[in-house]
Amino acid sequence: MPRVGVLSLQGDFARHRASLEALGVEAVRVVLPDHLEGLEALLMPGGESTTMTRLMASTGLREPLAAFLRAKPVMGTCAGVILLGGDAERLPEPPFGVLDVSVERNAYGRQIDSFEEDLDTTLPGGRYHGVFIRAPRITRVGRGVQVVASRAGRDASAEAVGVRQGRVVGLCFHPELTSDLRFHRWFLTEVAGLSWAVHEDATVAVGREPGGESHS
Ligand code: GLN
Catalytic annotation on 184? Predict the structure, then answer.
C-alpha cells in the first residue's frame, strides 16, 4: 500500500487523510522533517498560508520539504497552491516556486468568502463540483503548465482553477470537501504513477461545518 503524506501543520488536513484512506492508501501526517521519509507523494491542504509558512520555519520543515517538492509528486489545494506557486504577496517567506503560476490570495473578495461552482475539468467524467473558500486566483499560467480545471471568468473567458506541471498539481478549490474522489485518484494514479488495490467505488462521507475549520 503506498504511503502518501499530508502536510498537517494547520488547515483541513484531516479531510485529505480521509479521502486517501477511502481510496485504500496509507495517509501519513507530516509535521516534522522525519515524517517525509519513505513517502511516495504529498498533499498540501487548504488553510492559512501565512500561518503554515511560519510553522514550517519553527518546525524545521521548510528545507526538507523544499527538497521533497523538487523530487516527488505533490498536490496542493487552496493555501497549498499558494505555497507551491512562483509568487504570492505578503507571505513571511517566498513560496516554494515549483509551479510556474502567479497567485493572488483571497482574490474572490471578502463578501464572497465561499462559493461553489461546477467546473470544467480534463478528468474522466468532465464536470466537477468545486468548493472555493477564500480561494486564491491563478493570475498567470506559465508555459509548460497544463490547465486541468477551469471556471467561467469575469469576461466569460475560462479562468484556470486547477493546474499541473509535471508531477506538481495545484487546485484553488477543495476536492477533499466533496465525496467525489476523482482528483485524489487522478493525482495518485496518473500524476504520481502509483498502483495499488484501489477501492473502486470509494467515496467519503462529507459533513461540512462552515466556519468549523480554519480556512481563512
Ligand atoms: N485565504 C487562504 C490563504 O491565503 C487560503 C484559503 C484556503 O486555503 N481555503 O492562505
Answer: no
